[in-house]
Description:
Number of helices: 9
Oligomer: single chain
Radius of gyration: 20 Å
Amino acid sequence: MENRGISTAVIRRLPRYYRYLDELIENGVERISSNELSKRMNVTASQIRQDLNNFGGFGQQGYGYNVEYLYQEIGKILGVDKQNKMIIIGGGNLGQALANYGNFEKRGFITVGIFDRNPALVGQLVRGIEILPMSELKRFLEENEVQIAALAIPKTEAPKVAEMLVDYNIKAIWNFAHTDLRLPKDVVVENVHLSESLMQLSYRMTNMQKHPGTP
């Protein structure tokens, strides 16, 4: 289905719907109304219906949503109904934590390679994957169909490495480096700034302490 002017806010809520639907399936729930789903997710029923209507709706009035069907359809929209091979650049603590997080595989993201320039890390095994030197990156990508790369490296190295990945036909970069990347428009970049998220948490905590009862 084409993405015709769908807002970023809606796209960012889709993974949350997907996660809650997965939990409902695990609990044996077969059907659910937008009102019932809204109570679980703390999102209004109207918002849920508006979000899903962007992609066709999937529900029937008075009938609700078939949980399994909706889960599968949102999976297709998110592109997680198929396997996506991913490499990790950076074999340090963060890179190894990403590689060890088994839930990515459940969502269809399969880590197939880890790379680092540190000789002390090269050769180590992380979940059975050997950390390879950066000198092996080009050959590896030529021999394997990989479109996604996660950057778990210092911000000073990230721009140069990102440009190299683009030259090697990587189409999407999950960027944990504390810098914004400027890459061609046909390359998808998702920036994850952990310190900014923590500062937002700090702001909300401080605001709540100053003004009790404020969300």
